Q: What sequence folds into this?
């Protein structure tokens, strides 16, 4: 076995053994047997064909580094683990992982450097028992940028509860050769525990990049964007901006993008939570050509929401509404899971029919979660599927009317319906066509519809980021 195990994995094996002060006469604890068995399995697969796949997707969770401790050459803190309580209580005397450990592993592994294409760094908080507060991992910008420069084929980077500090003085942000998607979140759900951090400074992270095809922000605590404009820096380019669990576009982010980084326009803006107090004019300043809106439940969440207007989107060409759709063939269906009534309310709330959108040429209804039964079957034409329609006759009629009015108001030839095309459990195009005829007979007869399949979905980390690796 020693001759079969690659050098890149020997450090991992010795790390487990050293952390336990293991001796050959003492039996390994069960968890470490599993870890060593995994290393053995990897070594057996260590072929030229398998290596890129072994390191393609990496998720690394680590703890904060003690500030007054200098790591050794291996990036460990063996001399001060007990003092700083960096031991994992679930595994006797096992060390918490730290960023220097991962950095040194990547820097010593040419195979990992050339194979990692999707990387997720997840910060674990540590608790100061005297103050009763949590503190989270922070990374100096210099090693953070150095790590990215060691990964020339990295396409997707997700950062959870990670803060980058001490940005170095440099002439310009990094132009990474392959990075296409960046996700920054102050909310993490590692191992089922949800954590939020208010002190994430996304500007320090964004300052490291000159352009991104897709940027997603999940920052519900409205972080500050402390950054200075640099006239010698090139204007930042963003192809798609996704505002997830965030209070839409804050003043700080608006100023950072337009004034500090001189973003001229963002072609696609995707908003997951559109709040009534949202200053929608800030979003209009981005000059987007496509606006994607998750339809919220304004009635349940807000008593009397202030109306919004989309007239500020002078260059808008495509408008996409994301709706949760019913599950076909459920044993106990919830008819109100289909947000058709919410859609009608939302259209009136944003004054869509009254908005001046001269360039609008396409309206799309993206149906999220529209899946087939566990045993797929063809839906016969003309047969009414009662579970998803039960109790929704009036809502569906209004849904049909509103869609027809939208098509008439903006002179659209049809309305587009989209579903995720990469998930095999999603309903087929033929079955969806049958359902649309049942849901929207007026639209189908008067205007028509188009069905497309996209890469959109709920899980943005792996299932719906594969197209970035192509």
A:
């Amino acid at each position: 076995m020693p001759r079969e195990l690659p050098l890149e994995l020997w450090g991992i094996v010795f790390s487990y053994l050293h952390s336990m002060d293991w001796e050959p006469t003492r039996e390994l604890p069960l968890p470490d047997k599993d870890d060593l068995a995994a290393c053995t399995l990897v070594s057996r697969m260590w072929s030229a064909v398998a290596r890129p796949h072994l390191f393609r997707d990496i998720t690394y969770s680590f703890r904060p580094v003690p500030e007054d401790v200098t790591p050794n050459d291996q990036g460990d803190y063996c001399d001060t683990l007990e003092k700083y309580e960096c031991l994992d209580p679930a595994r006797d005397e096992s060390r918490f992982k730290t960023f220097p450990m991962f950095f040194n592993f990547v820097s010593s592994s040419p195979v990992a450097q050339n194979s990692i294409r999707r990387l997720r760094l997840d910060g674990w908080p540590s608790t100061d028992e005297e103050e009763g507060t949590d503190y989270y991992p922070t990374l100096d910008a210099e090693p953070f940028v150095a790590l990215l420069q060691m990964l020339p084929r990295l396409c997707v980077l997700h950062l959870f509860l990670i803060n980058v500090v001490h940005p170095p003085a440099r002439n310009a942000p990094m132009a990474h050769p392959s990075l296409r998607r960046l996700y920054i979140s102050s909310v993490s759900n590692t191992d089922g525990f949800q954590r939020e951090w208010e002190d994430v400074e996304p500007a320090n992270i964004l300052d490291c990049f000159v352009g991104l095809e897709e940027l997603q922000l999940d920052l519900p605590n409205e972080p500050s964007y402390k950054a200075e404009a640099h006239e010698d820096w090139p204007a930042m380019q963003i192809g798609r901006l996704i505002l997830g669990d965030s209070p839409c576009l804050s003043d700080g982010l608006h100023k950072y993008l337009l004034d500090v980084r001189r973003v001229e326009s963002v072609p696609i803006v995707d908003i997951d939570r559109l709040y009534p107090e949202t200053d929608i004019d800030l979003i209009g300043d981005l000059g987007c050509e496509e606006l994607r809106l998750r339809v919220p439940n304004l009635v349940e969440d807000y008593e009397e929401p202030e109306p919004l207007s989309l007239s500020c989107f002078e260059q808008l060409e495509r408008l996409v509404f994301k709706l949760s759709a019913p599950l076909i063939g459920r044993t106990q269906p919830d008819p109100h899971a289909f947000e058709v009534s919410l859609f009608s309310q939302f259209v009136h709330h944003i004054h869509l029919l009254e908005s001046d959108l001269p360039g609008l040429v396409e309206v799309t209804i993206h149906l999220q979660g529209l899946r087939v039964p566990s045993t797929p079957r063809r839906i016969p034409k003309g047969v009414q599927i009662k579970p998803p329609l039960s109790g929704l006759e009036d809502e569906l009629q209004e849904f049909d009317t509103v869609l027809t009015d939208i098509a008439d108001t903006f002179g659209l030839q049809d309305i587009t319906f989209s579903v995720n095309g990469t998930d095999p459990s999603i309903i087929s195009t033929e079955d969806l066509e049958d359902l649309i005829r049942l849901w929207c007979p007026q639209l189908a007869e008067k205007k028509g519809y188009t069905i497309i399949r996209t890469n959109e979905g709920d899980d943005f980390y792996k299932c719906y980021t594969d197209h970035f690796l192509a």
Summary: The chain has three domains: 1-46, 54-264, 288-458. Residues 74-94, 329-336, 458-463 have pLDDT under 50 and may be disordered. The radius of gyration is 26 Å.
